[in-house]
């Protein structure tokens, strides 16, 4: 999974917390990544959405939530 801020957005994004969730399920935290970085993880077959919470400082614990995004549903085949 890779994320990037919209090109028309002038905000500063230091990193994002990435989650996946089954349709109607609770999000599972996958990791923290920098813009343009790639996060690789194994997930079970199924239908999911990806969620990204972007933060504008180097520490998400002390940072300010700058953006939130979700993907369309996608399927992971066996």
Give an overview in words.
The chain is mainly beta. It has one domain (15-76). Helices cover 0% and strands 42% of the residues. Strands 1, 2, 3, 4 and 5 form a five-stranded antiparallel sheet that branches. It is elongated and about 35 Å long. The two termini are 18 Å apart. The model has no long low-confidence stretch (mean pLDDT 79).
Give the overall silhouette. Answer: elongated
Total beta strand runs: 5
Count of structural domains = 1
Radius of gyration, whole Å: 13 Å
pLDDT < 50 stretches: none
Mean pLDDT: 79
What level of helicity do the residues show?
Answer: under 10%
Please report the number of helical segments: 0
Q: Which percent range describes the beta-strand content?
A: 35-45%
Helix- and strand-based class?
Answer: mainly beta
Question: What is the secondary structure topology, with strand pairs?
Answer:
Elements (H helix, E strand, L loop, with lengths): L14 E8 L5 E6 L12 E10 L9 E6 L3 E3 L2
Antiparallel strand pairs: 1-2, 1-3, 3-4, 3-5
Task: Write a concise keyword list for the protein shown above.
78 residues, mainly beta, 0% helix, five-stranded antiparallel β-sheet
What is shown here, in short?
The protein has 78 residues and is mostly beta strands. It is built from no helices and 5 strands. A hairpin with a 5-residue loop joins β1 (15-22) and β2.
């Amino acid at each position: 999974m890779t994320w990037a801020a919209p090109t028309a957005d002038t905000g500063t994004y230091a990193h994002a917390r990435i989650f996946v969730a089954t349709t109607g399920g609770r999000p599972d935290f996958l990791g923290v990544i920098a813009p343009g970085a790639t996060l690789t993880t194994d997930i079970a077959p199924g239908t999911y959405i990806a969620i990204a919470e972007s933060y504008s400082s180097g520490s998400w614990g002390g940072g300010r939530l700058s953006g939130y995004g979700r993907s369309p549903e996608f399927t992971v085949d066996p």
